[in-house]
Amino acid sequence: MLIQEIGKSIKLRRKALKITQPDLAQLAKVATNTLYKIERGQANPTMDIIEKITAVLGLEIKLEVKKITNKSAS
């Protein structure tokens, strides 16, 4: 999942819950400017920051590892 997708999901959920950006930042104990940048896909947040925000919003982040196939010439 790209940061742009994470930011979009956070923004959609925040709006659905009718929470302002400053209120979410305060509840998640992150800087308001950091939240602005995350929602716009312009930040490179730590997992700790993402976890704080998603916990407040009731979101879950899933990490998937793609299987690498070994394509050898026949």
Q: Could you explain the architecture of this structure?
A:
Helix 2 crosses helix 3. It contains 4 helices and no strands. It has one domain: 434 Repressor (Amino-terminal Domain). The chain is elongated, with a radius of gyration of 15 Å. The longest helix is centred in the first third of the chain and has 14 residues. With 74 residues, it is an all-alpha fold.
Summarize the helix and strand pattern as letters. HHHH
Tally of helical segments: 4
What is the beta-strand fraction?
Answer: under 5%
Tell me the CATH superfamily.
lambda repressor-like DNA-binding domains
Q: Using the alpha-carbon principal axes, give the shape.
A: elongated
Q: What is the CATH topology descriptor? A: 434 Repressor (Amino-terminal Domain)
What low-confidence regions span 5 or more consecutive residues with pLDDT below 50?
none
Supply the number of structural domains: 1
SS-derived structural category: mainly alpha
Under the CATH scheme, the architecture is: Orthogonal Bundle
Name of the CATH class: Mainly Alpha
**Radius of gyration over C-alpha positions, nearest whole angstrom:** 15 Å
Question: Quick one: how many beta strands?
Answer: 0
Mean pLDDT: 90
Ends apart, CA distance between termini: 34 Å
